[in-house]
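2024-03-11 09:14:02 DEBUG pipeline.ingest accepted 1 chain
2024-03-11 09:14:02 DEBUG pipeline.ingest length=309
2024-03-11 09:14:03 DEBUG pipeline.predict start
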Amino acid sequence: MRARRARRAFLARHTETVYGVLTDGLTRPVRLADLVYEAADRFPGLVPTRAQMAAERRFVQAEKEGREIDQGIFCGAVLRSPTAARHLVETMLRPTPRARTLLDGFRTEGRIELDTVYLERRGVAGHIEFRNAARLNAEDDRLIADLETAVDLVLLDDVIKVGVLRGGTVDHPKYRGRRVFSAGVNLTDLRDGRISFVEFLLGRELGYVNKMLRGLLTAPSPGDGRERSVGKPWIGAVDTFAIGGGMQLLLVLDHVIAEENAYLSLPAAEEGIVPGLGNLRLTRLTGARLARQVVLGGRRIAATEPEAR
């Protein structure tokens, strides 16, 4: 606790200086995960090192030392700084290096298969299909990375005019052979300590979710005479259910189509976690009363209910 108080006190005074050192005076874009680990190298003791986090991941969540709390102290300080936060958010809106590497091949072939996501161009639509079949298309660190790559490719491809999200068929005995949109966060991985704070929880919101909402940043700096970002409309096709993170995704899309028997829910409070920015975005769409029922009361919204609109 004493060390954490010291970190908070240090960052209260020196966050912008630290961020400036890590980004060469705001001239170098450094993605969030790299920023955290570079801070560990350049400022020993400020945040955990890669080796410390790798050791931490060997434990189930309940038995961890809590090193991600120290990452949270650092990330919170950066995101409270107007200068550092703006630079970091814009950095996270840029295409990932992986997407840039795959772009030419996708433009030629019109399709790409990643570990947990399949992307195909059909006419002017880019269809992204979740393929974490053994886990009801639940989100984990691997799916987060694959999905950001796919979203980048949809936004970078000049032929594609609209993006489509849909869940693929799953292997779960109860739903085998059926399409499922998303079961939200992979609770097994969460229990086992394999859901990361920086790469998953923060990387998800600052990465592909924000890119679908605000567009992909493509120009290097303001005032250079070019359009700085590219945005496209997004459609969600919901089969069976969109739970947790799956429902959160729907809140940043432009249009949602759901099958008659589908339902939506945000059970994060029951699981002891915060539903990303879903609690803020849902309230804007529905008003406070219905949002409380969904977020705090665990209410499921059936696709056929009037509230589903």
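2024-03-11 09:14:41 DEBUG pipeline.report The domain at 97-308 is CATH 3.90.226.10 (2-enoyl-CoA Hydratase; Chain A, domain 1).
2024-03-11 09:14:41 DEBUG pipeline.predict end
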